[in-house]
What does this fold into?
Amino acid sequence: MVIGAGQAGLVASWHLQRAGRDHIVVDRRASLGGGWQDRWDAFRLVGPAWTTSLPGAPYAGGDPEGFMGRDEVVARMATYADGIGAPVALDTSISRLSPTDDGWHLDTSRGPLTARQVTVATGGFHRPHIPPVAAALPASIRHLHSHDYRRESDLPDGAVLIVGTGQTGTQLAEELMDAGREVFLCIGHAGRAPRRYRGEDIFVWMRRLVDDGPRVGVELPTAAQLPDPAMRVAGNAQLSGHKGGHSPDLRALGRDGAHLVGRLEACSGDWCRLGGDVAATLDQIDRFFEDGVQQLFDAFIDAAGIDAPPAAPQATADFTPKPVDELDLGAAGIATVLWATGYRQDLSWIDAPATDAMGFAIQEHGISPLPGLSFLGGLWQHDSTSSTLVGLERDARLWATGLGLPA
It folds into this structure.
């Protein structure tokens, strides 16, 4: 039994079919396309279209360097499922998974089922996270998570306060400003990355690190190598597939009219207290790539003997916002708070000691210490690329090897 028919569950099916293993892939949704169906109307992939290459089905479209929209990605996954003949049962939700003497018992919306082995391929983004401060917002303010946002025209008239500046928050800020909205932006700590580096899209270097890094001794840090396990829930670096693909710049958004403020600490009626040193946070965001990832890319390029042009500094707008300690939502004309605060994992439906204190699956290369249980496509299953299209094929090979399947 494979739980989840997104890209991870479908790739698991591809491996199982090659091995001649009887299996079924179940998904709670009524249609194929996985979690991509939950994105907003104007969503675009952050990575180029070629990253949608999957085992047995390399990308064959006409614009490999373009950035697919939501519906294109959904169609790509549905076509892949049909192309590999994945045995998918839709409209099948799992409420409980529990071990038995010879396998696993599943309570499903179609009734009880049993399986000798179960692979959980539900991704890493399960439960939209809304901070507790939301409970103190006045009833006059509409607030919703980005998971439930679809289009600008659905929002009430007025300014929008976006909380969070990872990939989603920065893209939504640009989208709403382009639609003529006044935007207030609570800045988080997700770093900024260049769209291109040393002659290639940054995803080229990410994929090469994943595929070729082990051969030359330069690899992304694994989950076990992180200095703090909490880093597993840090936001992804700011990148966008909009406008032909670019690297959003918070300073440029501020220069162009967005109100850049600190974190939302407390609210009482229309009054909100803001915290954090915005200027220092912006400096940290701007240094993110230079302080870490760039060194890995450079080391890989050198170790692999790749002839790449020298690094160029990342362009940043010359703008620093004035510090703001509090915000009057009514006076600012804010009618909507949009939470771009990410997701939390939820594997609580597994009735067994399968997760750690932070709710992450306990596994090695996808294989749980609990007999007959495995995982694929989870957040930080191996490294930061595990829940992305870039790292999936590598993780699937490791998972297949762990199950004794041909990789």
